[in-house]
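In this section we walk through a basic example: taking a raw amino acid sequence and producing a predicted 3D structure, encoded as discrete structure tokens. The instruction is simple. Fold the sequence below.
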Amino acid sequence: MSDPAKPVVTISYCIGCNWLLRASWMGQELLSTFHGQLGGVTLVPSEIGGTFAIQIGETVIWERKRDGGFPDVKALKSRVRDQIAPDKDLGHLDGHKAQ
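The resulting token sequence is shown next.
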């Protein structure tokens, strides 16, 4: 059972465009990176053509039409981090070299 105090990411995707795999991959990436900081990731199928949106609570952090396509994993994780854990270090995604 998820912790209601932790934010939940919702990914809405167009079923007609076959974007389920993309949505689930992005959800997996977020759960791997933000384990312990997220209450979960919810995938929401949509019959509205071209839908692909990612939100945390009521805040839309990515919308395919508004933001011009799909986020790369770096942009997605950065936007999620900025919303839920601004001090979190994303390691190499933040441009750090392995020591």
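Looking at the output, two observations stand out. Residues 20-33 form the longest helix (14 residues). The chain has a mean pLDDT of 92. In the next section we compare this with other chains.
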